[in-house]
Amino acid sequence: MPLALLALAVSAFGIGTTEFVMMGLLPNVADDLGTSVPTAGYLVSAYAIGVVLGAPLLTGLGSRVPRKRMLLLLMALFTVGNLASALAPDFGWLIAGRFLAGLPHGAFFGVGAVVATRLVSEGRQARAVATMFLGLTVANIVGVPAATLLGQHLGWRATFLVVAAIGLAAMAALARLVPRIPVEAHQDVRRELRALGNRQVILGLLTAVFGFAGVFAVYSYLSAMTTKAMGFGESSVTLVLALFGIGMTLGALAAGPLTDRALRPTLYGSLGALAVVLVVFPFTVHVQWAALVMVVLLGGVGFMTTTPLQMLVMNKAKDAPTLASASNHSAFNLANAGGAWLGGVAIAAGWGWTSPALVGAVLAVAVTAGYLDRDPSPKSRVVAGGPRTAPREPKATSPSGPHSGTHSSPSGV
User: Fold this and answer.
1) Residues of the chain above pLDDT 90, percent
2) What is the sign of the dihedral through the CA atoms of 85, 240, 31 and 148?
3) I want to staple 192 with a disulfide (CB 3.0 to 4.6 A). Which of 253, 319, 323, 402 is the partner?
4) Which residues on adjacent β-strands are paired with residue 397?
């Protein structure tokens, strides 16, 4: 794998850390700024809103910007947002900082996924995308626990200063390792918008919303389940969250080669496995060792859906995949919000702390896009490089060697 993928993974590590660390810092922020924990929870929402709005907006504005420069600009905005969060004088400014930090999230992963497919040969595109996502999963194993611990001992502002430093390191890695990949001559925002309106792209995005909402229905309340259902002490919460992160990493590692081999079977197989795990989870949660195994499995099968979903919308968008790829992360954040809300409704209704798992199972099996995802024509067999008939870009080079330009899609699409 090219070293440029390492730069993308480091960037994803920083983004993943700042996205999820706020959950662990809410009490500290609330105490320091004189507000309640539920009110501080708006900081999570502010970041998610930034992702949802920023993905299509920034991708559209940057449709003519060369890929490498766009990645650097997005990471610079991410760094500024985290620095603004660290220096925020009051709660309102912190809300603004979190919103600003979230704006480049979806656009970065959208552009980064397209760049990743350009760095490898045909048949390895999904593995390249999965390698970038590994930074996000490793953040849940190392970055989030370490940043939470740092914030608890040195103050929450120190956490965001460190994340800003990670952003600067990521910019240096992107500048050094990512080759110049120019924008295609035929690329413009109107073409991207037309691709986003494709029914198959919309169905892929809906699959992300409903399918991945099942994961967040449980993950949002995993800390409470650890103490109230599994019987562990509060000191074990970090371990349980780390196990979930390990599962995510294993799922990402498996998803790459499986998606390259057969996209749709990987996607719907992982969604089916997710539904099974969510159904079984409430029946094993009171046996501690079994509950820990299920946490790993949940993270694994849940995150195994992300790479095929990313490749699905990129393929369906054909020769204008960037906006669709970025919008996929808006869909993931809608899944985050929707899954957390539905899980909370189930708990508030008195159905028990494990009821979000059953809600998640319903969401996973409710995805019907697979029945409508039927486009056997050869024109559909395309990924980030553009249609087969489109002119090829000049081959890009990087410190790790030559890489191919446009590619056709993985088999099974």
Assistant:
1) 25
2) negative
3) 323
4) 402
